[in-house]
C-alpha cells in the first residue's frame, strides 16, 4: 500500500467520523429538547455533554472529536439555549463540552494502550 492510498484511507475515516459526530450531536440535541424543558438548560447541557463524551470515545480521529465539541457548543448556544428564558450566559457551559470530549478521547487512548499491552502474551 502506498502513501497515497494511506492518505486516502485517513481522509475517508475523517469524513466518516465527522459525519457520524455531526449526526450524533443532532440526535442528542433532539433528545435534550424533548426530555428537558427550555427552562432547564443544565439538563440539556448534561445530555449534550454525555453525547459528546461518548462520541469522542467512539470516533477514531481526534480532529473529529474536536469538531464534535465545536458543533455541540454551536447547537447548544444557537438552538437549545436560544429557546430558553434569558440565561446568564450560555457560553459559560462551553468548558463542560470540552471536558467531556477530553475524557472521551482519554478513555479511547487508555483502551488502545491496554490492547497494545495485552497483545502477544504467552502463558
Question: Could you explain the architecture of this structure?
Answer:
The protein is an all-alpha fold and 123 residues long. The chain is built from four helices and no strands. The model has no long low-confidence stretch (mean pLDDT 86).
Poorly predicted runs are: none
Terminal-residue CA separation: 35 Å
Q: What number is the mean pLDDT?
A: 86
Count of separate DSSP helical elements? 4
Query: For the report, how would you describe the main beta sheet?
Result: none
Counted beta strands: 0
Report the helical percentage: over 70%
Strand-residue proportion: under 5%
CA-atom Rg in angstroms: 17 Å
What would the principal axes of the Cα set say about the shape? elongated
Order of helices and strands: HHHH
* Content-based structural category: mainly alpha
